[in-house]
């Protein structure tokens, strides 16, 4: 009873915040609620019934297990609850999405009570979240002659769980809501500093955009009860920055449909749109919820009489509006014709790309992974019955072009493809199910991934996955009460599920807060691998990696598969010579700037960047592949030379071994298996049997970009351009400026060296520069705070062994202590060097931030509004992005340096260098 009383106390607390009772996931509380229900005289019984029926989470939560067992007793007549008839109990089981509910349904369907068995069998025909053990029970019963099992399998073979669902409407009327002008980061929809509440969907929903925006959405719904609200990024792309399932969940919560009357705050089918469409990673997340993502194309470049774009004074194309989507505009989505129409029926734009056969299936089923599970279930049933599966699902588009070679991503997808026509070689545009080799889950989305796994009734990682890692990097900065409540629970769940975890729930090793992308880059030991990670910066320099939402990560963990079209590629090569005073980060920025100059539009958006960085080791090449998320690319592939790849794999092996030595191995021997795979791959390369991945000479690309290193003669800065008169130009990553633009006068309030964009060499650069300054000036004085966060503990250990960490300690005014981690986020900074715990730190912005209104110069990847620094009442916060030496020097000077000051400061410093391959030259960095 104490659990129930505690729950009532929590309900009162939530009521004061305007929140409903929190959905129940605890089996002990559910058992207490059942005891009250069975007590006919209890004054609490009416409320307990409501909690049991409408507020208990489904799937494999402990609450779902207890609920399913009680419903089984009701169905079998072992418990009598007048309000829950056996028929209603079966209906409740049908909404519980697998796990214990499927166990109960199978027990009854395969039992001896024939009438009940048939009824349970009818419910099972609607379920798709069955796993091997469930399917094997059906197979064994079928072989034993069980008629109900036979009927269920026959239904599965016909995919009636899908065909009997309502079709998508021919027309969907919407009313528009412009969420913002310009690119909309998912941080607007689900702020990083509210990450702790993401698994509490109602509470987290309160942080979407602003309370005023939420009220405006409600008002639109009240004025247009027959229409759905379409959320829009005007003059921009919707959902840039990260996949963020919580962002889509929030949009669905406010504008979507309720998935089940018995599951609170789980909505689906949001409608989102952008002038420039939907970011690729966010589009995948929209698919997970059966939503609609539309490319509006409502602003186009104005052209002159010569047909060329008219440019404004800043050299940017002038845009003109083809139709209005101002908030409150009524629009019709003509699903049948795949057109967007105004109220009068006039066609506005073709939206066929939003309604491909596959996307239509996701919409009908309510989620993309219901389709994945359904296809698997149909295949199994047909094989068991010895029949062909009924053609129900849209056939995968298979594009094969005779005589055309393969790009790198086409080669990887063909190698990992599942269920394609035997012997057929596929090209870009083909729809493919692929085996996933490596999966990553990060800590601020991990709780949602765990919820998704519970909801789809998964209990153990798929044996198809070579390795998976759960990080602790996004909550590394501050070990506050929120982290203490969430992270151990997350690590325990993922460790049990079969992942390598950053923290042993049994306390056998200290918490590891290494940045997820760095760890995934180390445990990826095959350049032909496919990686799925719960973060937009899952961009490895080995294999091809896709940032994904928490649901897609859960699906990859549970099934070992992912489904997507083979993307088009853009080839990036280099010519010329890198200046000795330039850092490779400047090459990365220059790539974006030169691409825009060469192509006019961003040809990287939604495509694979195949970057030929053959002479760079994986750690250094990662600086480029990591940045491709900001280039709006779908993913990237680094083409490496044989010897360089071998050296990268040897480094990966040594770091995996360190993880083993620290006690991070699991019972399945995952880490040892990765070392063995690395050895096998090295042997293939050395023998010549399978050289490093490379495209065919006659591969076809969407575009080819050649970066001229000779043009890069001063450091480059990505500027959020916060005061641009055109709102749509603010906070994009496309404004790349040379350092001379600032004239050595722009005040810098804080410098940050850290995040996934830096490697060991960057830490050594900091140490070298500080030594140089002390030698030249007698001492080091900072005119702005400098925050330094190494990506991993391995890097710190290597720096200690090589003497660089001692140098950093000498100049620091603060050094992290794992035995006494910070319990509170820093709100003010002194002009000193801070050596922070490995992890994301300021880049994530959910714990530590710069002071409001600051101008921050960072090695980070994020310059979105409010991410690293929030606005003050007097000034907009700015996050400018630059190389490590520029950031260090700016912190010492308190301003951006001039080009001359920069050159003098880096003289003799071992910067990260790169040279295009010539005659087999490796050109490896001195840092390794």
TrEMBL record:
The keyword Nucleotide-binding does not apply. Residues 411-894 form the Aconitase/3-isopropylmalate dehydratase large subunit alpha/beta/alpha domain. GO terms for cellular component: cytosol. Residues 6-162 form the Aconitase B HEAT-like domain. InterPro entries: Acnase/IPM_dHydase_lsu_aba_1/3 (IPR015931), Acoase/IPM_deHydtase_lsu_aba (IPR001030), Aconitase/3IPM_dehydase_swvl (IPR015928), Aconitase/IPM_isomerase (IPR050926), Aconitase_4Fe-4S_dom (IPR036008), Aconitase_B_HEAT-like_dom (IPR015933), Aconitase_B_HEAT-like_dom_sf (IPR036288), Aconitase_B_swivel (IPR015929). GO terms for biological process: propionate catabolic process, 2-methylcitrate cycle; tricarboxylic acid cycle. One of its GO terms (molecular function) is 2-methylisocitrate dehydratase activity. Residues 175-406 form the Aconitase B swivel domain. Pfam families: Aconitase, Aconitase_2_N, Aconitase_B_N. Keywords: Iron, Iron-sulfur, Metal-binding. This is Aconitate hydratase. It comes from Chelatococcus reniformis.
